[in-house]
Each structure stands twice: as C-alpha cells, then as structure tokens.
Design goal:
- The structure is a single chain.
- With 115 residues, the chain is an all-alpha fold.
- It has one domain: Chaperone lipoprotein PulS/OutS (Methane Monooxygenase Hydroxylase, Chain G, domain 1).
- The chain is 66% helix and 0% strand.
- The chain has 6 helices and no strands.
- The protein has helices at 2-14, 25-44, 52-65, 78-90, 96-107, 109-112.
- Helix 1 crosses helix 2 (25-44), helix 1 packs parallel to helix 5 and helix 2 crosses helix 4 (78-90).
- The longest helix has 20 residues, at 25-44.
- It is globular and about 40 Å long.
- InterPro entries: Chap_lipoprot_PulS/OutS-like (IPR019114), PulS/OutS-like_sf (IPR038432).
- Residues 1-22 form the signal peptide.
- This is YacC family pilotin-like protein.
Length: 115
C-alpha cells in the first residue's frame, strides 16, 4: 500500500519532462494529481491554512521545472481531472494518518520553493 502512494506521488511530482510543447494530456493529469494532493492535505489532513495562492505558485513552479508549456492549460477540464485524482487518492486503502504523513512529507517541500 505504501508503495502505491509513493508511486502516485512520484508520478504526480515528476511526471514526464518535455521540451516546451503544449501541455499534453498526461502532463495535465500530473498537474491534476498534484493539485489533488494539496486539496487532500487541506481537506483531510488538517492543513487548512495552506494558502491557495502559494499552492498555485507551486503548481506553476512544478510545470516550469518540467519545461511544460501551460498556454493550452484551459483546453483541459482540469476540474474533472482533479476530482478524479482526488477520488482516486481518497480511495487508496491506507489509514488516513499514514496517507497524510506520506503526502505531507513528499509534497509540502515544493511549497518552500515558492514562498
């Protein structure tokens, strides 16, 4: 179970790098996965005070580090992708405390880069 959480995080945090082409479907899904991680931390793990603006900056920073071009970001239904990712993350059969600790450990450091 712990491996599946790590695999999900690795996919969402590192994704596939490309050389500044329009955002692909898999990259949009990776952004949605990362967004779902932050939403899960806020809603289910007691991190309500995470500022939305800082989360947005972290998502843009993540995309820039991967050299993703976000010009076609609005062509994807990011709300639906994010909801699917959140549902998938919520459905992982691991105790919530364990899931929260793992998600926080592996993703909150990204916010430090955009303060």
């Amino acid at each position: 179970m712990k491996k599946s959480i790590r695999a999900l995080l690795l996919l969402s945090l590192f994704g596939f790098s490309s050389t500044s082409f329009a955002l692909s479907e898999s990259e949009a899904e990776d952004l949605a996965d990362l967004t779902a991680v932050f939403v899960y931390l806020k809603n289910d793990c007691g991190y309500q005070d995470l500022p939305d603006g800082q989360i947005r900056k972290a998502l843009v920073f993540f995309a820039q580090q991967n050299r993703w071009d976000l010009t076609n970001y609005s062509s994807f239904n990011m709300k639906a992708l994010g909801e699917d990712s959140y549902r998938d993350l919520s459905g992982i059969a691991v105790p919530n405390d364990t899931k929260c600790k793992s998600l926080a450990r592996d993703s909150l450091s990204l916010l430090a880069y955009v303060k």
